[in-house]
Amino acid sequence: MATRKRGNKWRTEFIVEGQRYVRYFDDEGEGKAWEAYVRLQVARGQPLHDDVLGGDKPMTLGEAFKLACAAWEGTKNRKMAVSNAEDVMAFLGKDFPVAKVGKVEFDSLVKHFRNRDLSDSTVNRKMASLSKMMSLAAEHGEPINFKIKILKEPEGRLRYLTPEEEVAVLQDLQENEGGVYADFVRVGIDTGGRLSELLAMEPRWLRKDPQGRLLLTFPARVTKSAKSRTIPVPARSVDILLNRMDGKQVWPEHWNQHTITHAWARSRSRLQISDPEFVFHACRHTCATRLLQKTGNLVLVRDWLGHSDIRVTTRYTKVVGDTLLAGAAALDSFHTPST
Asked: pTM for this structure?
């Protein structure tokens, strides 16, 4: 293998008389000179002391974690990424060498997380943090030879609200939680915004175009794709939002994700809806399915929801069967005999 670039260091590896020698250097020339010296000493039968073999200690998970924390600083998902990395270290140990993470450790981690009843999608997020730590270690010269595999995730069910469920939820929230909660759900259904995006809404995100239409822009810093998107606000939500323009934020500043998820859970309980997938995120799915039902335009739905990949959007075609049927009818029209 000799001397090769690995990250920001040079890795020198070779075998002499059945013995493998490996060291990292800042310069290619140093690595080649070291190899030549070791080969000469072995040929002469001279002993190789620790200062020649190198006393560099392998990077540990704890050290790689510090590198990852620095890389995650300022990112939207920093808190979750750090938590996932800490979960990995709690199982493998912070002193475990990063370069020794292999199939055995991977399989053990997967089994451990599954035993905690975590879904494969959640396990994948934890493994993504481990993968980041390993890639950063590789950039610093560690011999990382194992690649983290992505577990196949079930497609899952796209739960959306029927018109009857929407009426029931809005009425229940209005009567038991307050009008502002009902308004929040209306805006959620009309805009398809993610819960985190909606909670962060500021009055300056709203403006009118030359035709007087109210536009809502979700800035890149709050979106999952890290790209901004602008949508026209549906009529039902226009007055709701215009009446909430006086504060620093559109919705109460003390609200957080638990505020909404707990209010939604209480409403679900009062309405005696046992479906565990009947969660607030169903409002986003409701927006998507309705858009697709009325327009049949996947690109429009993708851009409205801010999907980074249209393959995510195509999931809704399985829910909205009529959209595909309309496509078949359009193709059939080319073969319909003219009268």
From this structure: 0.63
Distance in angstroms (rounded) separating the CA atoms of residues 96 and 106: 13
Q: Is 144 within 8 Å of 137 (Cβ atoms)?
A: yes
At 171, is the pLDDT very low, low, confident or very high (cuts 50, 70, 90)? Answer: very high
Please give the angle made by the CA atoms of 63, 65 and 66, to the nearest 5 degrees.
70
pLDDT tens, position by position, 9-25: 787 888 888 887 877 78
152 contact partners, CB below 8 Å, separation of at least 6: 120
DSSP per position, 218-251: E-GGGSTTS--EEEEPPHHHHHHHHTT-SSSSSS
The C-alpha torsion from 300 through 304 and 307 to 309, rounded to 10°, is 10
Q: State the DSSP code for 155.
A: -
Residue linked to tokens 């998970």? 61
